[in-house]
Design brief:
CATH class: Alpha Beta
Helix content: 25-40%
CATH architecture: 3-Layer(aba) Sandwich
Oligomer: single chain
Radius of gyration: 15 Å
Structural class: alpha+beta
Protein name: GNAT family N-acetyltransferase
Number of domains: 1
Organism: Parachitinimonas caeni
Pfam families: Acetyltransf_3
Order of helices and strands: EEHHEEEHEHEE
CATH topology: Aminopeptidase
Shape: globular
Largest sheet: 5 strands, antiparallel
Strand order of the largest sheet: 1-2-3-4-5
Strand content: 25-35%
């Protein structure tokens, strides 16, 4: 196992550890019912957004890796979160992504996911997955765009979810 990098850089994005005030930028995502339709199934309150961010911070402590705050270099704004995520009820570690709607359509999610793929593979010793609700067509398109392939469909929390394997 390698030590997972605490920061990753791309041409347009900085992927770094979360800071306290990052919850405000993340709340743009979590407070939007369209953004959370397939995960929380509802918009979150400010307190719930802060707790969601705190769980990602804690993930780093418990697992040695986790999601990054995705920061748009040109503005310094937190666009969302991308990185490894492995709650205890997930089938295996995944690359997750969650960007606020104002950052959709710019290629940021795919840029951030591609930055995470190689260190994730090295750290895990195998290619990670992305675990996607079967109705989440935008995330399915993103998984395919970054080279992930559909491996199987499983029942999870009362609905079908797809396991997409990232390139190995």
């Amino acid at each position: 196992m390698i030590d997972f990098p605490l920061q990753l850089d791309t041409s347009r994005l900085l992927l770094r550890q979360f800071k306290h005030d990052d919850w405000v930028g993340l709340h743009d995502h979590y407070s939007d019912a369209e953004c959370t339709r397939f995960t929380f199934r509802r918009a979150l309150t400010e307190g719930e957004s802060w707790r969601a961010m705190s769980s990602m911070v804690g993930h780093w402590t418990l697992r040695g890796y986790g999601p990054y705050a995705v920061v748009e270099r040109s503005t310094g704004k937190v666009a969302g979160a991308v990185g490894l995520w492995y709650p205890n009820d997930w089938p295996e570690p995944e690359i997750k992504w969650a960007l606020a709607r104002q950052f959709w359509g710019r290629g940021y999610a795919s840029e951030a996911v591609r930055a995470v793929q190689a260190p994730a593979r090295q750290h895990l010793g195998k290619a990670p997955i992305s675990f996607i609700n079967a109705e989440n067509e935008p995330s399915i398109r993103l998984a395919l765009a970054v080279g992930a392939t559909h491996e199987k469909t499983v029942e999870f929390r009362g609905s079908p979810w797809h396991v997409y394997r990232h390139p190995g």
